[in-house]
Amino acid sequence: MILVVSRLREDVGLWVRKNIRKGTKMAEAKEDLTFTPEESRLIWIDCEMTGLDIFHDELCEVSVVPTDFNLKVLDDGIDLVIKPSDAAVNHMNDFVRNMHTSSGLVDEWNKNGLPLEEAQKQIVEYVKRFLPERGKAHLAGNSVGSDKKFLDRYMPDLMANLHYRVIDVSTLKEISRRLYPDVYRNKPAKHGGHRALADIIESIDELRYYRDMMFVPAPGPSEAQAKAGAQHIESTSLLRDYERRGEALEDVNSAEKRDY
């Protein structure tokens, strides 16, 4: 009797293990089938603000560029300048005021700045072109936390179309600083001049670089390989397409922008 019970337990255990493995494989297959190319798209967003205080400062420029999950750019993007309130302008400190003045942003918002509501409407309409029929795209960017706080407060309709998970390039930047120093030291240069569209394209390029340089066995590429990788990313950037059309978004002759 004891032998029969013991054998029965073994048979039941074997059946359970087989079916758990089978169920896991089925779940994995189902997950693969439901993760369509459209659902893997990234909505890259960069914002310029009058400061970092979400209760007193406001958005003054928002740029959006969509990519697929392999970082292939799906469109040249959209860049909207927003006219901030007088209160927000008066709240700017000297550093931010000088930055936005030298970049030409203050001039632009005084001449052609959109009301916040209109800017949000245009961005939502644009983003929806790249969303799956059901579901939401992932927000991507560099140091996304500060931008996301302002988008949550000032553009809730836009954020309602985006997934709660984000892809933040600065995470890989900090990993490279600690684990792949040659990769960190040789990352693509940034000359965007604190304008949103150039900044977000540079963020896409930075993630392309980290993908190529870091997702390899440790200790990763040599300094020469990292430098060559950065040069390749810069030469194939969407920024070069803008330059060929006579719409340069960055001044490559300027000093490299400090990359916080």
Strand order of the largest sheet: 3-2-1-4-5
Average pLDDT works out at 84
Q: Number of domains in the coordinates?
A: 1
Q: Biggest β-sheet: count, sense, barrel?
A: 5 strands, mixed
Number of DSSP-assigned strands: 5
Q: Kindly state the percentage of residues in helix.
A: 40-55%
Structural class: alpha/beta
Named CATH topology: Nucleotidyltransferase, domain 5
Order of helices and strands: HEEEHHHHEHHEHHHHH
Spans of at least 5 consecutive residues with low confidence: 1-34
Question: Which shape, going by the Cα principal axes?
Answer: globular
How many separate helices? 12
What is the CATH H-level superfamily? Ribonuclease H-like superfamily/Ribonuclease H
As a whole number of angstroms, the C-alpha radius of gyration is 23 Å
Tell me which CATH architecture applies here. 2-Layer Sandwich
Give the class-level CATH name: Alpha Beta
| Ends apart, CA distance between termini | 72 Å
Q: Beta fraction of the residues?
A: 5-15%
Topology:
Blueprint: H1 2-34, E1 42-49, E2 59-67, E3 78-81, H2 86-91, H3 94-102, H4 105-112, H5 116-128, E4 137-141, H6 144-154, H7 156-159, E5 162-168, H8 169-179, H9 181-185, H10 196-214, H11 223-235, H12 238-244
Parallel strand pairs: 1-4, 4-5
Antiparallel strand pairs: 1-2, 2-3
Helix pairs in contact: 8-10, 10-11
Could you name the key traits of this structure?
260 residues, Nucleotidyltransferase, domain 5, five-stranded mixed sheet, 12 helices, 13% strand, disordered N terminus
